[in-house]
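[job 0417] fold request received: cytochrome-c oxidase
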Amino acid sequence: MTTLLTILVLILVAIAIWQMTKIFELSQIRAENTQVASDKDNKYNGYLMFAFLIFIYGITIFSFWKYTKVLLPEAASEHGGDYDDLMLWSFVIIFFVQTVTQALLHYFGYKYKGEKGKKALFYADNDRLEFIWTIIPVIVLAGLILWGLYTWTNIMDVNDEDDPLIVELYAQQFNWTARYGGADNVLGGANVRMIDIDRANVLGLDESDPYAGDDVIVKELHLPVGRKVNFRFRSQDVLHSAYMPHFRAQMNCVPGMITEFSFTPTITTEEMRLNPDVVDKVKRTNAIRAERAANGEPNSDPWEFDYVLLCNKICGKSHYNMQMKIIVETEEEYNAWMESQQTFSQLMASMN
Ligand SMILES: [Cu+2]
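[job 0417] inference complete; emitting structure tokens
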């Protein structure tokens, strides 16, 4: 009821203001027709064009200053550098063109503002000008596209050279599971129809497949630094997307098919924790968390940096929290960790 009354009062106030404006306008009748902009109005608008330009540049500089620090730290994969270079140069070119054309647009808006008896300079037709503003974008865009295609082909080339580690990432609402090929580095066959939750066969591995026995199923992804990893992605239910931002990697997980992506991690978790950008981010986050702790709010434990696998497709109500920790470590640490894991056949035996 109160809400209804408030809305009613607001509507009445709005009507009152509208009516008063009309009365005010009627009382201001002048000899000249006020609907046509005068030289003074045009001059005023010309200066406003400049004011708006300053506003745009100002907000751009402010955003750079305030938000650059929330960007990702340096890429932790071999191809990540190429990806970042392409991204950086695309932005530099777009930014340069935007800055120049915006300034010209506003300058000419001011220069040729309406004035009695004044006419703007114009060409009805100019072949040379048209040639220039066509050929420059053509060359620049063709260059960007070719470079992009070259980079894309390199990054998306999944092959078996250099003895890659084979890892399956399995997506389901709302968590990730990883599977290693075990000692033989070959994944056993699997199908969602063979999933048997009661017997802990959560990924639907084919128990009769000799390759499946030594597979290792885990809830935390460990990767040895410097070794190429070939990922195979599966989804149990809907579209998910495996997103590993620090490695500049993303691949859709599609029910009923296997998708692939390959990358080589180059920086261990320990090393990344010492990266100045990461140190700074941890410091900022923990300052906020300390404040929360002081107020007795949840999510206030000190945070430590870890690589993370996220879902980047809105796949349902807990999508936001569909993640898995990734640990990049030395070969020895990785081997020791792998030693301590149960194989699929050990797991099955313990269930019987
Ligand atoms: Cu998802």
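[job 0417] notes: The beta strands are 165-172, 175-180, 216-218, 221-224, 229-235, 240-244, 249-253, 259-263, 307-311, 323-329. The radius of gyration is 31 Å.
[job 0417] exit 0
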